[in-house]
Amino acid sequence: MNIPKKLGVSFLIVSLSAAIMTIVFFANIWEIRDATKRNNHAQEVYAKALTLETSILRENSQLRGFLVTADKSYLKSYEEARKEYDTTSRELAAMLSDPNELALLSKSNAEKTKWRRTWSDRLTDWVKAGRRDEAQQAVRDAGKAVLTSDIVLPLRAIRDQETAAIARNAASQNTAIGTAIVALLLGGVMMIGVVITLLIVLSRSIARPITTLTRLMAELARGRNDIEVPGSERGDELGDMARAVVVFRDAAKAKVSDDRERELALQAIGSGLHSLSEADLTVRLTDLPPSFHQLATDFNRAVQNLSGLTSDVRGSAGTIRSNIEEIRQATDHLSARSEQQAASLRETAAAVGEITQGVREGAVSAGEANRAVTEARDEAEKGGEIVAKSITAMNGIDQASREIVDIITVIDGIAFQTNLLALNAGVEAARAGDAGKGFAVVASEVRALAQRSADAASDVKARILSAIEHVRSGVVLVDETGNALQRIMGKVSDVSTVVDVIARFSEQQAHSLGQVNIAIGEIDSVTQQNAAMVEESTAAASVLAQECETLMASVMRFNVDAASPSRSQAHHRTANFRHPPTSRAA
Fold first, then answer.
1. Residue ranges with strand state E in 21-161
2. CA distances from 286 to 2, 56, 289 (A)
3. What torsion, rounded to 10 degrees, do the Cα atoms 121, 124, 129, 134 define?
4. CB-based contact 416:454 (threshold 8 Å)
5. Contact 437, 401 (CB under 8 A)
6. Element housing 231 (H / E)
7. What's the pLDDT at 3?
8. Per-residue pLDDT at 567 exceeds 50
C-alpha cells in the first residue's frame, strides 16, 4: 500500500471515530433540546393557568367592591379582568394537547359561565338598576355558592400537572446532559488512543524509512559512492525514493570518471587557448578523451576559420587602404564642384532677386495704370450722365418751342380776327358819317395794331421754328456724343480689365520669383552643408586610413597557416569604392 492510501486509511479511521462521537453527542444534545422545549411549554401553560386564576379572583373581588360601593371604577376593573380571563382561556386552549388538561379547562370554563350567569351578571344589573341592597342580601343569603372555588380548582389541577411535567423534563434534561458529557469524555479518550496508535504505525512505516533515506542522501552528498540503499524493493513512494537514491549514487560514480576526463580536456584546452593568446593560429587540439572529440573538432575548425579570417582581414585591409586614397581624391573633387555650384547659385539668386524687383515694380506700375483707367472710366461715366441730362434739357426746350409756336399761331389768328373786326368797324363808322369818324379812327388804329401784331407773330414764329431746327440738330449731336462716351466707357472698362489682369499676373510672377529665390537660397544652404559634409568625409577618410594602418599592424601580429585564397567579397567592396554613385557626388 502506498503512502497516500495509508494516510487516507488513517484519516478515514480518525474521521469515523469523530463521526461516531459527534453522532452520540448530538443525539444527547437533541434530547436536551426536546426536554428544554417541553419544559418551556409546560412553564407557559403554568403561567397561563395562573393568569386565569388571578383574573377570576380579580373579577370576583371587583364585583364585591362594586356591590358594596356602587363605584363604577370597580366595574371598569371588573370588565378588564373579565376580558383578560376570556383572552387567556382561548390562548391556553390552543396550547394544550393533553385530553385531561383540556377537560379540566372545559370544566373551569363551564363553571365560569355558570357563575357569571347566576351571580356576576345578575348582581351587576341589580346594582346598576338601584337594587344594591337586594344584591348584597342575595350574596349574604347565597353563602359559599357565590364563591369561585369551582372555577379555580380545575385551574390549580392544571398547574399541578404542569409542575410535575416540568420536574420530569428537568430530570430528562439532566440525564441527557450527563450522557452527553460521558459520551464526550469517552469519545475524546478513544480519539486520542486512535490518533496515538496511527502515529506509531505511520512513524514505523513512513518516518523511519524517510530518515534513513535522508541520512544516505547526506552521505552521498559528502562524496561517499559505496553506500547500500535499503528499501528499493518496496512498492510505495519510499521505494521510488530509494531507487532514485540508487540512481544518484550510480550517477555520482559516473561523474567522478567524467570529472577526470574533463580535467584532462581542460588542460589541453587551456594549452591551446594560451597559444591563441600568444597570436598563434596554427595550434590544434589532438589528444583528448573520446567524449571530447566533438569539442576538439569544433575548436580546431574555429581556429582554422579564425586563421582564414585573419588572412582575409589582411587582404581586405590592404584593399581598404588603396581605396581610401581614391575616396579622398573623390571627396576633393566633390568639394571643388560644390564650391563652384555654390558660387553659381549665389549669382543665380542675385539675378532672380533683380528680376523679382523688376516684376514687382511692373506690378506696382500696372496697379497705378489700373487706378488711372478706373478714374478715367468714372469721369467718362459722369460725362455720360451730363450728356444725358443735356439731351433731356434740349428735348424740353424743343417741346417748349413747339408750345410757343402754337401760342404764336393762336396770337396770329387773334390778330387776323382783330383786323377783320377793325375793318368791319371802319365800314360801319363810314356808314355812320360824322358821328362815326372818331370810331373810324380808332378802328383804323386797331387795324394797324393788329397788322403789326400779326407781322410780329409771323416773325417770332419764323425765328422759333429756326431755333427748333437748331435744337433738333443739338439733340442729335448730344445723342451722338452720349453714344461716343458709352463706347469710350466700354473701351476704358476693357483696358481696366486688361491692366488688372496684367497687375495680378505681375504680382503672381513676383511671388513665384520670390519662392524661386527662397528655393535657391535653400539649395545654396544645402550645397554649403554638402561642402561641409565633404570636408568631414575627407577628415573621416584620413582617420580611416590611420585606423587601417593600425589594423594592419595588429593583424600582422598573428601567426597564420598557409595563405588563404582571396575572397570575392573583398573584390566586390573594392569595385564599390572605385565607382561611387554619381548622385552622391552631385
1. none
2. 54, 128, 10
3. 100
4. yes
5. no
6. none
7. 62
8. no
Amino acid 434 reads D
Topology of domain 3-210, per CATH? Four Helix Bundle (Hemerythrin (Met), subunit A) (1.20.120)
pLDDT tens-digit series, residues 326-369: 777 777 777 777 778 777 877 787 877 777 777 677 777 777 77
Using a 10 angstrom Cβ sphere, with 0-12 exposed, 13-18 middle and 19 or more buried, the burial of residue 503 is buried
The count of C-alpha atoms lying within 13 angstroms of the C-alpha of 105, restricted to the half-sphere facing its C-beta, is 26
Query: Residue holding cell 403789326?
Result: 452
Bridge partners of 559? 280
| Percentages of the chain per state (helix, strand, coil), in multiples of 5 | 90, 0, 10
Q: How far apart (Å, rounded) are the C-alpha atoms in residues 539 and 324?
A: 11
Q: What do you get for the CA distance between the two ends of the chain, in Å?
A: 91
The answer to whether the beta carbons of residues 248 and 15 sit under 8 Å apart is no
Is 50 exceeded by the pLDDT of residue 572?
no
Residue 436 sits at the vertex; the CA angle it makes with 431 and 437, to the nearest 5 degrees, is 110
What residue spans define the domains of the chain? 3-210, 312-557
In whole numbers, what is the pLDDT of the chain averaged over residues?
75
Distance CA 459, CA 470 (A): 17
Local confidence band at 481 (pLDDT 50, 70, 90 cut-offs): confident
312-557 shares the fold of 3-210? no
* Measured distance CA(124)–CA(64) in Å, rounded: 10
- Residues near 108 by Cβ (< 8 Å), separated by ≥ 6? 52, 151, 152, 154, 155
What pLDDT digit, counting tens, does each position of 235-292 carry? Answer: 667 677 777 877 777 777 677 777 777 777 777 777 767 776 777 767 777 776 776 6
DSSP secondary structure letters along 347-407: HHHHHHHHHHHHHHHHHHHHHHHHHHHHHHHHHHHHHHHHHHHHHHHHHHHHHHHHHHHHH
The three-state secondary structure class of 174 is helix
C-beta pairs of 373-378 under 8 Å, 24+ apart in sequence: 373/492, 373/495, 373/496, 373/499, 374/496, 376/492, 377/489, 377/492, 377/493, 377/496
**3-state secondary structure at position 232:** coil
- Check residue 207 and give its pLDDT: 67
Q: What pLDDT is attached to residue 351?
A: 79
What confidence score (pLDDT) does residue 127 get? 76
Assigned C-alpha cell, 174: 439532566
Query: Residue 559 carries which DSSP code?
Result: B
Q: What is the pLDDT of residues 39-59, one digit of tens each?
A: 788 888 888 888 888 888 888
One DSSP character per residue, 218-259 reads HHHHTT------TTTT-SSHHHHHHHHHHHHHHHHHHHHHHH
Q: Which residues contact 350 (CB under 8 A, 6 or more apart)?
A: none
Fold of 312-557: Helix Hairpins (1.10.287)
Q: Amino acid letter at 219?
A: E
Beta bridge partners of 280: 559
Q: Which of 187, 175, 171 is nearest to 24 (CA)?
A: 187
The rounded distance, in Å, linking the Cα atoms of 221 and 218 is 5
- Percent pLDDT > 70 in the chain is 82
Cα(25)–Cα(46) distance, rounded to whole angstroms? 31
**Is the model's pLDDT at 172 over the cut of 50?**
yes
